[in-house]
What does this fold into?
Amino acid sequence: MEFKEIISQVTKVYKDRSEDLERKKQLWIQEVNKLYDEIGNWLDEYIQSGDIIVDFDRLKFAECEEFMMNISMMYLFFGSTEGPSVIFEPTGINVVGAFGKIDLYFRGHKEDSVFLLLTENKSHWEIWKSRKQEENIKKLTKESFEELIGEWLKRWTDI
It folds into this structure.
């Protein structure tokens, strides 16, 4: 193989990878925002009554500038902005075995966080309690989300 052919092949491979990465970034942004909308729909009754307050803030860390500009951390405050809260912190698409990951935790208890993993085929989100979990993986649904948040509220609040 001549040098010219080698350069041509390397260029094609890395150009394709770059284009694929850009598609993945845009899909990740779309999927995170879609999840936030879905969570808002699940909790709409509580949001409308003022029992849950939803707020957003800039990501503290991100894999790339597009994520910093287009994805936020989502906060769910219970009772008031001074009350307990749950934080969604998207970490990105550099995840082995999944398309992307969001850390989900109760404020003040990040060490007990769970991971929301978007499956590789992007068909649904899963709740993982550790990176090595192999069984009892739950699909993220309204019911599994309410169960998790309910457990945290019982454990870490005065109810």
The first helix runs from residue 3 to 42.
